[in-house]
Task: structure prediction
Amino acid sequence: MILTLSRMSSFRQDFHIQPVQLNPLVYEVVNELKSHFIHRQIYPLVEVHSDSSVLSDRKWLKFVLTQLLTNAIRYSDGENKSICVFTGQQGRQITLSVKDEGVGISPQDLPRVFDLYFTGMNGRKFGESTGIGLYLVRKICDKLDHEVSIESSLGVGTEVKIRFPVSNHLGSGKVTNM
Result:
């Protein structure tokens, strides 16, 4: 995380915007985190449309998704819970969401979760937080022109949404709904 943080100043030199298929990317990340899901007895549910394609940098979007799923696993409350990764579409805009059934984030902490080194009440309670992960998620999404937002309720869970900008061209010359 510290190495990624230090690379942020030269981030624009290390990204390549191209069409990214969300379905295979999500399954790749879920598979890489399989041992964490199994260890915590949490079930990943993936509802990502097979034709969902967005303009992004695959490597950095994978980092963001890995961070969001790692947080969702870390803060899930108990066994036999699920974490759902799904896409939605409003007009031509695609949203990728990660929703957990975890401990949630307190209302007073919610406005600061993207601040560098902020760990809040959960950071003190669970002791695994660095306050870097969500900061990097926000910075990466900002630099890629993706909008990230978070909603949470204590004891219910958290949902993080990434909204991708609408683009009419994905290299094929045809207009594609995004």
Summary: The two ends are 31 Å apart (CA to CA). The chain has six helices and seven strands.
